């Protein structure tokens, strides 16, 4: 089978190669467009996130996938599950809102806590920060799928797996023939 | 109700409320909320009120996770709030309109995550004076 692969590669002339590369580029562009479209529709910079910790068990486990929306006019209310980022840190955290104080003009400050944690999130916030604000929110969890996000966690923890996967995908796309 | 330093966060003096409550709930009463796609219910009791400082305040006082298969009837008496009921300021004193509502988050095996607010609610008026701590 490996010999067939090399045979295939040698038999392809330049034109066929360019055609396959363009095909590949089109698939990548379409995927990016769909992702950008999701960002626009949901209003969230990251409409699909993977749960990274067990702090929301037994509702969500590490590897679950969450679908978020972040509509500007959606008020933040106690009990909602929000995904937020602490200023200066990259990792999104998925926890529940347990306290809100909202002023008449809509300015809101709120406190979060993981269902599975004993204490609220003040220890996670920035030094001296006691509340979260709307700008820290990446989105609100609206739906979820279990296990599906495990793939990204594995790819993060084992980069060799990621490269192997990309190599296989690349080879498949470049070598597949339109019938 | 007392006025103490909010030792869980900001260092200013804020009102701290103490509430005890009973909860009687029969979750399977109307229709089966635990259908094939429901993994658990996250039940929580929240207090909602307005103050001079803030037009809207909501504080979760108590929560409970009910897994599929757990006893769906709750008879909780004389419960104390699980979390400290600190106001952002001194808005609990004399506040006649603190409303307690029971709500729940349905967590499916897969799919949408709805948040449902119970239709009943209870109003809890707070007294006009602070309770002084007994010293021993």
TrEMBL record, chain A:
Cross-referenced SUPFAM superfamilies: LexA/Signal peptidase
Positions of transmembrane segments:
21-41
Q: Where mainly located?
A: endoplasmic reticulum
Is Hydrolase a UniProt keyword of this protein? yes
Pfam family membership, one:
Peptidase_S24
Localisation: Endoplasmic reticulum membrane
What InterPro entries does the annotation carry? LexA/Signal_pep-like_sf, Pept_S26A_signal_pept_1_CS, Pept_S26A_signal_pept_1_Ser-AS, Peptidase_S24_S26A/B/C, Peptidase_S26, Peptidase_S26B
Keywords in alphabetical order, please.
Answer: Endoplasmic reticulum, Hydrolase, Membrane, Protease, Signal-anchor, Transmembrane, Transmembrane helix
Q: Which reaction does it catalyse?
A: Cleavage of hydrophobic, N-terminal signal or leader sequences from secreted and periplasmic proteins
Q: What is its EC number?
A: 3.4.21.89
Return the broad EC class.
hydrolase
Membrane topology, as annotated, equals: Single-pass type II membrane protein
For this record, an example GO cellular component is: signal peptidase complex
Q: Which GO terms describe its molecular function?
A: serine-type endopeptidase activity; signal peptidase activity
Summary of subunit composition and partner proteins: Component of the signal peptidase complex paralog C (SPC-C) composed of a catalytic subunit SEC11C and three accessory subunits SPCS1, SPCS2 and SPCS3. Within the complex, interacts with SPCS2 and SPCS3. The complex induces a local thinning of the ER membrane which is used to measure the length of the signal peptide (SP) h-region of protein substrates. This ensures the selectivity of the complex towards h-regions shorter than 18-20 amino acids.
What is its biological role? Catalytic component of the signal peptidase complex (SPC) which catalyzes the cleavage of N-terminal signal sequences from nascent proteins as they are translocated into the lumen of the endoplasmic reticulum. Specifically cleaves N-terminal signal peptides that contain a hydrophobic alpha-helix (h-region) shorter than 18-20 amino acids.
Q: Which family does it belong to?
A: Belongs to the peptidase S26B family.
Matches recorded under NCBIfam families: sigpep_I_arch
Name the UniProt record assigns to this protein = Signal peptidase complex catalytic subunit SEC11
Which species is listed as the source? Crypturellus soui
Give me the gene this protein comes from: Sec11c
From TrEMBL, chain B:
Pfam families (UniProt xref):
SPC22
Q: By what name is this protein known? A: Signal peptidase complex subunit 3
User: Where does it mainly reside?
Assistant: endoplasmic reticulum
Mode of membrane association: Single-pass type II membrane protein
- Which BP terms in the Gene Ontology apply to this protein? protein targeting to ER; signal peptide processing
Classification from the root reads: Eukaryota, Metazoa, Chordata, Craniata, Vertebrata
The record's subcellular location field reads:
Endoplasmic reticulum membrane
Its biological purpose is as follows: Essential component of the signal peptidase complex (SPC) which catalyzes the cleavage of N-terminal signal sequences from nascent proteins as they are translocated into the lumen of the endoplasmic reticulum. Essential for the SPC catalytic activity, possibly by stabilizing and positioning the active center of the complex close to the lumenal surface.
Q: Which keywords appear in this protein's UniProt record, sorted alphabetically? A: Endoplasmic reticulum, Membrane, Signal-anchor, Transmembrane, Transmembrane helix
The entry's family comment says:
Belongs to the SPCS3 family.
Give Gene Ontology CC terms.
signal peptidase complex
Instruction: Tell me what gene encodes this.
Output: Spc22
């Amino acid at each position: 089978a490996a010999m067939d692969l090399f045979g295939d590669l040698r038999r392809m002339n330049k034109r066929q190669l360019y055609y396959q590369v363009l095909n590949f580029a089109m698939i990548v562009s379409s995927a990016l467009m769909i992702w950008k479209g999701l960002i626009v529709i949901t209003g969230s910079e990251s409409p699909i996130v993977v749960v990274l910790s067990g702090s929301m068990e037994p509702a969500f486990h590490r590897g679950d996938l969450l679908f978020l929306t972040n509509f500007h006019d959606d008020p933040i209310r106690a009990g909602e599950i929000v995904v937020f980022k602490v200023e200066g840190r990259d990792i999104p955290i998925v926890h529940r809102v347990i306290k809100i104080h909202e002023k008449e003009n809509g300015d809101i400050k709120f406190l979060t806590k993981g269902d599975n944690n004993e204490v609220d999130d003040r220890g996670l916030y920035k030094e001296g920060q006691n509340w979260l604000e709307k700008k820290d929110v990446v989105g609100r969890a609206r739906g979820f799928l279990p296990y599906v996000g495990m793939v990204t966690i594995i790819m993060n923890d084992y980069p060799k797996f990621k490269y192997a996967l990309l190599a296989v995908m690349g080879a498949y796309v470049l070598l597949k023939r339109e019938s | 109700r007392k006025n103490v330093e909010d030792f869980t966060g900001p260092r200013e003096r804020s009102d701290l409320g103490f509430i005890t409550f009973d909860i009687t709930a029969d979750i399977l009463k109307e229709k089966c909320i635990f259908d094939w796609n429901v993994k658990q219910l996250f039940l929580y009791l929240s207090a909602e009120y307005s103050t001079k400082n803030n037009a809207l305040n909501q504080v979760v006082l108590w929560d409970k996770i009910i897994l599929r298969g757990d006893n769906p009837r709750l008879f909780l008496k004389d419960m104390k709030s699980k979390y400290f009921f600190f106001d952002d300021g001194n808005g609990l004193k004399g506040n006649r309109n603190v409303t307690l509502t029971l709500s729940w988050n349905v967590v499916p095996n897969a799919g949408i995550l709805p948040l449902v607010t119970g239709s009943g609610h209870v109003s809890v008026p707070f007294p006009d004076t602070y309770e002084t701590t007994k010293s021993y």
